Each structure stands twice: as structure tokens, then as C-alpha cells.
Amino acid sequence: MTPPIRGFAKSEFGVRTQRAQAKMAKKGLTALLLTTEPEVRYYTGFLTRFWESPTRPWFVVVPPIGNPIAVIPSIGAHLMGQTWITDIRTWQAPDYDDDGIKLLAQTLREVTPLRGKIGLADEMESHVQMPLASLRAIETMLDGRALIGDGGITRDLRLVKSDAEVDKIRTAAQIADRAFDRVPEIARAGAPLSKVFRDFQAQCLNEGADWVPYLAGAADRGGYNDVISPATDAPLRQGDILMLDTGLVWDGYFCDFDRNFSIGTPNAATQSAQAQLIDATHAAFELAKPGAVISDLFHAMNGVINPSGKTMEAGRLGHGLGMQLTEWPSIIARDHTVLVEGMVLTLEPSVNLSGEKIMVHEENIVIREHGAEFLSTPQKGQVRIAG
Amino acid sequence: MTPPIRGFAKSEFGVRTQRAQAKMAKKGLTALLLTTEPEVRYYTGFLTRFWESPTRPWFVVVPPIGNPIAVIPSIGAHLMGQTWITDIRTWQAPDYDDDGIKLLAQTLREVTPLRGKIGLADEMESHVQMPLASLRAIETMLDGRALIGDGGITRDLRLVKSDAEVDKIRTAAQIADRAFDRVPEIARAGAPLSKVFRDFQAQCLNEGADWVPYLAGAADRGGYNDVISPATDAPLRQGDILMLDTGLVWDGYFCDFDRNFSIGTPNAATQSAQAQLIDATHAAFELAKPGAVISDLFHAMNGVINPSGKTMEAGRLGHGLGMQLTEWPSIIARDHTVLVEGMVLTLEPSVNLSGEKIMVHEENIVIREHGAEFLSTPQKGQVRIAG
Questions:
Q1: Does B49 touch chain A (CB under 8 A)?
Q2: Does residue B95 have a pLDDT over 70?
Q3: How confident is the model at residue A313 (pLDDT cuts 50, 70, 90)?
Q4: Where exactly are the structural domains of chain B?
Q5: CATH architecture assigned to A10-157
Q6: Which helix (H) or strand (E) holds B371?
Q7: Record: fold of A160-385
Q8: What is the ipTM of this complex?
Q9: To which H or E segment does residue B216 belong?
Q10: Nearest-CA residue of chain A relative to B202?
Q11: Where do the Peptidase M24 domain residues begin and end (chains A, B) (predicted)?
Q12: A&B contacts, CB < 8 Å
């Protein structure tokens, strides 16, 4: 129950940087330009909830050799100065005339030779976290250097977690386990769903979450229609199935799993659906070993929950997990990523019930040398009874 | 204490759309392409915490006449179907071969004449929430239609809040008021700062917050160094000044203000700094009427806190507030936005203390016909005593 130490050894950031630089050399890239929270944090350790403010852009440049360079608003200089980064270049943002653009372009020109290629994440699940006009301006200020796709360098590195990263995700999952165990204290007929959401988040915090960026869920008879809606003020009713799906954070790392609860005794259809969902996660869990591919996990789960091969609205049966609630890859038939030790995944099957209702179940696992290990405490066969 | 009704009348979304279309016509734009959470929500009412997942892109197209069109992953179809939007086009995301790109390009071609101009937010505080490679692909699929900057259309509309929006922000601020009143229950010498952060977030939830996307703060002797750091596990000490700055959400709208607390009796320097900060917010408050400009507020505050005109690391003394923790504009000397009724702002002065320490104070206001009105309950002159 004692959480691990916060932060990382400086050497971990050095290893991440050197691995990126080796991949950059192979791809002919002379720098990486990072603009989003997880990319910046991955190489620097810069952890703050201040990204909630969209005002100021933040940049990190990974040069071909040497340590990353931070090009950031002065408001972040003190916090960045507590990381392993020593080359910190700041401007006083927001600056309506030049919000860091000249400073960033100058830094890119400095570390990149003429005709060099600067890599920027441009593939699925990525975006560029700066104004489009700024990006277009920078492209004109590079004196012939090109800004091109990074070929997934950072995405591929983040896919495989270190032991220290896995420990943080496990800590988050254990906090959620304890909060889910306490749902019977707050979920009963008559309680507004919005109050259950508030109380559950407070339980997550009381059990040790640093914050609770994500909670979704639903409550309805014989399943629910939707897994991404916010809570309404409608009260829980006898016979409802309540689903709570949380992504809480400990030291910057997420868990992401859900649990289904019955308000009163569950009916046979929902019990059977829950059993099927659990069977599906175990079918994937058994196959989740180094050398297997993601599509194996998809087919193992889909064979249990969806033998007819119907279209699924969710679009996938799980995904990567770490510094973000959802990460690369997606557990779909089209994904042939080979599993290696250190990957962290969610297994998230869903089943269709009558009346367009669904039920969803989710567990978190890590791939180890000889097979998978649960990070969430895997649920047993029955729908939990809450109210 | 009874919160207002959740959601908005459908007519409010119609008015927002028609206002955008009038501005589009003036600027010669034949469509808007929206990609970020606040833009999509502003025109549709689509409210979900699912944006925490970066996997799937979400698009809304505002045509030159008629209602917005949603081009979204099928997982969101049910929730979008509960808004006023009826033209909802979906694909099963994630699709590694075409993640909505053809469907979006087809929709843009359909609503926009040949050689039409499609506006995309590209200025400060904005970004494009889709993979850069997808954006570049779409540009090649528009048969001569251009994707250009939107000239700040959505930003300018969002700047002025409706009464219903102001009511939601006020509700959020009143929840934070009550949570701040209860800080003495949780902050005392020996309590780890990380536990104070957890407990404070739980108090926000208990007082009615839907969620707490933002909490930053610090605790140190005679002020603090930083206002964006996450909490450490270090215990509060007698003589510390504790600052908590929260952006909590009610029905999709933020408050954003802080309070300073003393663990034990505050010293004269921090008392004097607090008084100066409060004087600064009142100096700006008095001027905050329709017809005044943002730089007036800056100079009013800066004259109180910074008569020597020293460089400020924070870069600004407040900002807009609404669907996001921070919104356009920034309270800086360079901003000459004219205040109009319905703008919601934070007033956020900071002062320098000895030893590179600072103190920050923040209130939330709305501009009314004859002057400003506080949304947060304005703090009186003294540092609050917590522990």
C-alpha cells in the first residue's frame, strides 16, 4: 500500500533521449520538435496541470546529440529548472507580437545543420499543440531545413514502459481498486447519478489519487446506451446497472478501467453479459505474451463477445495506457504490433444487450517476460451489487 | 444555493451559429472547420470528458447557412444525437487506413462552393486537434477550396457570454468559495501538501463540482516560488503561506481563482502583500465597465503591485474565463480589447517578495451594463489563517 517514490531517476530521461537520438539517426532526422504535454514530459519530466490553460505554447527540441532544450514561457522556468534540463530558454508569454516563434526557430537552426530534417509527430493520436499560423511561420524561418513527420519515434518509445513507469500505473490502478470497493457506500436507489460521480471522484482522491482527469459512466435498466456521457441528475433506480469508468492519475500516470454495479439484484441477462465480458478479458490475457500480436488479443475477445462479427460502435477492444488515458496501439483486427515486455494495455470488451443497450468491462495489464500480469485486480464473475 | 438548470436552450446554439455565419459572410468564408473541445461544444452542446482520450479526432463543420454538421467517431453518435445537431456523420474510429478524412473532406466539399474558403482557428491560444498528416491530406482533397485562418470568429463570439453561461460560471465560483471556506479543516502544520491537494479537491466535489480539472498551488515561508507545480509530499510547516488555485467545473464551465492561507499567524510582509494584491484587484474592478479597454485594467493593477515596472514572470495579470480555464484575452499592456457586457475575466495580480518569493491573488468578474460584478466572493484584506 506504500506508493513508490515520485519522479524518475535522471538516468531514465537520459536513456529515453539517447534511444530517440538513435532512431533519429536511422531516419535521417537532425532534431525532434515536441509540442504536447506527454511528449514534453516524456523527455524532461516536466509535470504540471498547467497544460489545462491553452494560452501559452511550450516547446522542447531534442538535438541530434546532447540533452533536450526547453523553449518555454518564463512562468515555467522555475519548474523546468527542477528537472534534469539545464538549457532552458524563455520568453514572457503571452506575447501578441511573437509568442516564442523566433526563439524556437533560432534554437532549431542552431541545433540542426542546413538542409537538416526536423521531426514532428504527425500520425494518428498526435496533434501539434501550437497555433497553425505559428507553425506555418516557423516553416519559413528555417533557412531550408524541413519540418517533417517524426515517423512515430516518440510514440514507439512510449509504447514500452520502464519498471518505474509500470509501478506508477499499478499504484493508480490499486487506488481505483480501493475506490471501486467503496462504491456500495455511495450508490443506492434514489441517489442522483451526478452525486454518485462526485462522491466516487472524492473516494478516488481519498484513496490516494493525485487527480481524477477522467470519469465517465452511465446507469440504466439492463445495460446502458453510452459510455462517454457526463452524469445527469437523474436518480438511480432499483434494477439499474451502474457503470463507472475512471482514469485517475498518480504521479502523472493513469489507470483506466471500469466496473459494473447492480442497484438491487441483477437480472440473468446482465449477469450473463458480465460473465461473458470477463471470459473475454481472460481469453486475451492468456495470449498476451511477448511475440503475440495485438490482433490476436482482438480476435480472442471478439470471438467470445461477438461471434457473429457485428459492427462495434466503440471501434476497438482496448488500447495502450500510461501518461495518457489512452495511448497507442488500438486493439483492433488491423493492428499487428508485436507485444514486448513492458507494454501496458487495457482489455476492454463490450457486449450488445436488448434494446440497444450495451455493457463494457475493462482491465489493465502489463506484458512480462513469460506472460501478462494484471495491474487492476481482475473482477470475478458476478456483477457487483451496490445498492 | 440551488444550481441553475443544466444545458442550454436549443435557441442559444442557433443564435451562436447564426452569429458565426454572419461573420463568415463578412470575411468571405464559406464554412468553418472546428476540431477542438471548446469549439465543438460551443456550437453543438456536445459535453463529455472523453476528450481526455487523444485517439479519435472529432470534427464539426459550420456551413454558410443551416445547422452545423457533426463528422465524428461512431462511439459519440448517441451522445451527439441528444444535442440539437441532427446531421451526424460517423465512421468507426480508430481506422488506421482513413480516420475520418475522406468523410470530412466530402462534407467540406458538399457545403462549400468551388474556390470557397474554409476557416480554421489558427491564432494565439488555438491549435488544430487532428494529426498534422491528416490536415495535410485534407488540403489535397478539397478540389481548389482553401483552408485558411478563421480570423478569430469563434474566439470573438466566445469572448462575450450569455446570461446562461454566466450563471454556470457563477455556480462554479460559488462552489469554490465554499470549498475555500473549508480549507482550515484540512490544512495544518504536518499535513503533506499532496494530501491537502487531494482533500481540497474532495471538498470541491462535496460542495458540488462536477469535476476538478485544475488545481495548482504551493506552500513556503514568506511566499512561494511557483504557481504551476504539482504538490510534493512535503508537510506544511508553521509559518508557511499556502496558496491553492483551482479551476473547477460545473456543467462544462470553469471558475478560476486562488486563495492564500497562513499556517499560523502570518508575518507583516505577507499581510502587506495580500492587502496590496486585494487593492490591485479592486483598482481594476472599479474600471471594468463597458467601453474601458483591457490595458486599462492592466495598468490599474500594475500601478499598485509593481510601481517600478519590473518584468513579471507570469506575463499577465488575468485573462478570459469560461468553457476553458483560461480564454482570450490576456490582461497585458498590449491588449486593447474593448470591454462589453457579458465578458468574464479573472483579475490575477502577483507581487514579488524577498528571496525570489511571490504571492498571487485572483478574483473572477463579469462585465455588466454599469460596471463589473464579482462572481467569486471577493476576499477581504487579511491573509486567511488555516492551520
A1: yes
A2: yes
A3: low
A4: 10-158, 160-385
A5: 3-Layer(aba) Sandwich (3.40)
A6: strand B371-374
A7: Creatine Amidinohydrolase (3.90.230)
A8: 0.97
A9: strand B211-221
A10: A202
A11: 168-368
A12: 229
Asked whether the beta carbons of A197 and B48 are under 8 A apart, the reply is no
Q: For residues A67 and A43, what is the distance between their CA atoms, to the nearest angstrom?
A: 9
Give the C-alpha separation, B237 to B260, whole Å. 15
Closest approach of chain A CAs to the CA of B125, in angstroms? 4
Which three-class secondary structure state does DSSP give residue B374? strand
Dihedral through CA B18, CA B20, CA B26, CA B29, nearest 10?
-110
Helices A294-305 and A268-287 pack at an angle, to 10 degrees, of 160
In eight-state DSSP terms, residue A228 is: S
- The domain B10-158 is placed in CATH, from the list 3.40.190.10, 3.40.350.10, 3.40.50.1820, 3.40.640.10, at 3.40.350.10
What contacts 24+ positions apart, CB below 8 Å, involve B264-267?
B264/B189, B264/B238, B264/B239, B264/B385, B264/B387, B265/B385, B266/B241, B266/B382, B266/B383, B266/B385, B267/B222, B267/B239
User: What would the pLDDT profile of A91-137 be if each residue is shown by its tens digit?
Assistant: 999 999 999 999 999 999 999 999 999 999 999 999 999 999 999 99
pLDDT digits (tens, 9 = 90+) for B72-90: 999 999 999 999 999 999 9
Tell me which of A40, A53, A253 to substitute to probe the interface with B (most B C-beta atoms closer than 10 Å): A53
Q: Residue type for B255, please? A: C
pLDDT greater than 90 at residue B381: no
CA distance B133 to chain A (A): 5
Q: Cell for B148?
A: 485558411
Query: Do A10-157 and A160-385 have matching folds?
Result: no
DSSP H/E element including B258:
strand B257-262
Closest among B26, B235, B248 to A201, alpha carbons compared:
B248
User: Which amino acid makes up residue A293?
Assistant: V
Share of chain B above pLDDT 90, in %: 93
CB < 8 Å from A in window 83-102 of B:
92-97, 99
d(CA B45, CA B33): 16
Strands (E), chain A: 31-34, 59-62, 69-73, 88-91, 117-120, 146-149, 211-221, 240-250, 253-254, 257-262, 318-320, 327-330, 344-347, 350-352, 358-360, 363-368, 371-374, 384-385
Chain B: closest CA distance from residue A286 (Å): 25
- Run of H or E residues at B254: strand B253-254
Contact B331, B297 (CB under 8 A): yes
B230 vs A49, A131, A226: nearest CB: A49
Q: What is the number of other CB atoms lying within 10 angstroms of the CB of residue A313?
A: 20
Give the dihedral sign, CA B296/B299/B301/B303: negative
